[in-house]
Amino acid sequence: MKRLLFAVLAFAAASYTWGQSYHPLVDTGKVWSTIHNYFPGLSSYSDFVKFEGDTTINGLAYKKVWRSADALHATWTSDGFIREDNSRHVYYMTWAGGPTNNLLYDFSVQAGDTVNLFYDPMGIYFIVDSVDNTTLLTGETRSRLFLSAHAGGGFLLGHDAWVEGMGSMFGVLQSGSCALVGDNPALLCFHENDTLKYFLNGFSTCFVTTGTGERQANGIFIRVFPNPTTGQLSIRVYDRATLPLKVIFSDPAGKKFLEKMLVNEVSEVNLTSNPSSAEVFYSISGSGGVVSTGKIIFIKQ
Predict the structure, then answer these.
(1) How far apart are the first and last CA of the chain?
(2) Tell me: the pLDDT tens digits for 283-295?
(3) How far is CA 258 from the centre of its chain?
(4) Is 0.90 topped by the overall pTM?
(5) What DSSP state is assigned to residue 43?
(6) What is the pLDDT of residues 204-217, one digit of tens each?
(7) Is the dihedral of CA 236, 264, 41, 32 positive or negative?
(8) Residues 236 and 269 in one domain
(9) Are 298 and 271 in contact (CB under 8 A)?
(10) Element (H or E) spanning 91, and its range?
(11) For residues 76 and 50, is the Cβ–Cβ distance under 8 A?
(12) 55 and 185 share a domain?
């Protein structure tokens, strides 16, 4: 009887230690800075992300996701909703809505496991190549996972790395970016409870604003998402004073197939009229000329 009681207590203690040792990703008091590089030759810009405020969607508890595009964090814009369950799965949903099961992370995986993130419509999957530990600036140790992204036929697309409690080295909302095109992001800084715990080598600040890509020299900040898309696209203009703008979509040969005026902060675009191409190019312009360009992967259904 004593042996049985000891075994039960030992198991309970081990379970408690295991539970306490895990650092959840979705928590308040954290701020991430991500640097974005959209195309070769264009300058970089950065933005901040935090999770703050509770909400319930379809009976599930989420944290609200906020994004800031200024160095002083004076203005935050609602960006979406994020949640983490007891199985260490993290799900992200943009402010515009969408499926509640968009998997952003799975911190329960082991080396050799396969992970299907929300890029599955393209047949992309991720393999956990290895798991080790990394040391943050504060000296604390966190678990780290190395993943490789593969196309449906097994073709290697790129690599990602996740740190427990901190997220992807591409940025907390950029998990799996190695499988996409356009943005080439990187985690610039990570603060937890006002303590700097990660800083990207080669930089001297957590905020970079040099003007082009999605944020232009005139201060215009535009998001075109989701990418990839099955046809429905959203364009968000963060500075209403820059409106109206015009967006033109064209195929790889440069032939225009859709033009739309952007008169609201958020505009919806339907790309299903695109005749055949899997790649769609866009150009957004205003009275001062072109302010943003990019490429969208269009998934035919």
Answers:
(1) 62
(2) 888 876 767 777 7
(3) 27
(4) no
(5) P
(6) 678 876 543 333 33
(7) negative
(8) yes
(9) yes
(10) strand 89-94
(11) yes
(12) yes
